[in-house]
């Protein structure tokens, strides 16, 4: 079977009030692909549909299908969590090195940075000790444990590191801090809500039964939400985090340090919905990924829908949409700010910034288009 294109374009329209500032053109054809397949066929299909985040999608599919068949909660094994941690660290580094430079610094990735990333990719980037050593040398300038220790013990240390460190993440955060980026309105976190009894099951039922929920998801109380490293780390640390765009970007760097240090940050589990249906939640680089499935009596797929982090973060009435509405300036300046804002919330598809006159400015965030 030829894998379909599940890509599309996110169109950003600065200066327009929600819901008119974001148009999500993703082609979400997963239900058409999976319906009718034997349940056992589905997990192996996921990496063909989602080339970069295929591991997280495969895990979500396996957990959801197991919970649907057995009608009992299923938690990821220790081995599955370790693999998810390694994949998430790799994705954070890929996007930081390849996706951040153009929108944040206004230039393509620097040759020396690309050479360093190739050095990691050419070896076994999933080997924990090797990845931690590479992060220490190229991302942090010290062992991840030492970086985290100073972050915890010294107020203001992160700002000083950003201001002075020569490593790629610090340079890019310095460049982002120079931009007059708006505050993003505070939003509830998907990560926090999923800890409440019945919340995941409620989202899964809506995902299976309500047309359109997968492209405009909301929390059980109807609110828009955000997801990603920043709310995940707030949950882990128990302390509030700044709402600035730069702080959200910095949370990605902190998560790199925590993952490289071996912290078990990422949750992955599935819950039954009754009637041979279930929903899985997997925390990945961009945030929470949901897979909901319903099986028929012959253990074939009767329904399958996914909500990726992009649909939460770029909801037309969400926090990014409200921040986009406040952008002002000339066309080039607005496009730069919109690109930096979008990068902080990390859409998984190409995006373009609509100009008030002339053609839209397209920013292809990923060369690989089959991406969650």
From TrEMBL:
Name the UniProt record assigns to this protein: Nickel-dependent hydrogenase
Source species: Caldimonas thermodepolymerans
């Amino acid at each position: 079977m030829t894998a379909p294109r599940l890509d599309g374009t996110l169109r950003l329209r600065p200066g327009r009030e929600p819901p008119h500032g974001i148009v999500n053109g993703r082609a979400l054809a997963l239900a058409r692909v999976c319906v009718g397949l034997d349940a056992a066929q589905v997990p192996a299909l996921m990496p063909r549909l989602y080339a970069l985040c295929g591991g997280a999608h495969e895990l979500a599919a396996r957990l959801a299908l197991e919970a649907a068949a057995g009608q009992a909660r299923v938690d990821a094994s220790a081995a599955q969590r370790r693999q998810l941690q390694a994949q998430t660290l790799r994705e954070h580094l890929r996007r930081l090195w390849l996706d951040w430079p153009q929108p944040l610094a206004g230039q393509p990735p620097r040759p020396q940075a690309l050479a360093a990333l190739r050095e990691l990719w050419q070896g076994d980037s999933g080997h924990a000790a090797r990845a931690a050593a590479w992060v220490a040398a190229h991302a942090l300038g010290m062992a991840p444990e030492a970086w985290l220790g100073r972050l915890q013990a010294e107020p203001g240390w992160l700002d000083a590191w950003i201001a002075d460190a020569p490593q790629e993440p610090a340079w890019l955060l310095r460049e982002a801090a120079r931009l007059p980026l708006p505050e993003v309105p505070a939003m509830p976190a998907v990560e926090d809500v999923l800890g409440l009894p019945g919340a995941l099951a409620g989202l899964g039922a809506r995902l299976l039964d309500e047309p359109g929920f997968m492209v405009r998801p909301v929390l059980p109380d109807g609110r828009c939400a955000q997801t990603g490293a920043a709310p995940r780390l707030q949950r882990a640390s128990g302390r509030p985090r700044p709402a600035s765009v730069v702080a959200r970007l910095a949370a990605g760097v902190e998560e790199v340090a925590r993952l490289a240090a071996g912290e078990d940050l990422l949750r992955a589990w599935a819950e039954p919905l009754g009637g041979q249906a279930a929903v899985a939640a997997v925390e990945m680089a961009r945030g929470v990924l949901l897979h909901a499935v319903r099986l028929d009596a012959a253990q074939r797929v009767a329904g399958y829908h996914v909500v990726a982090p992009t649909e939460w973060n770029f909801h037309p009435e969400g926090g990014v949409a409200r921040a986009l509405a406040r952008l002002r300036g000339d066309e080039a300046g607005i496009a730069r700010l919109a690109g930096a804002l979008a990068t902080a919330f990390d859409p998984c598809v190409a995006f373009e910034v609509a100009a008030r006159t002339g053609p839209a400015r397209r920013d292809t965030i990923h060369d690989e288009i089959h991406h969650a």
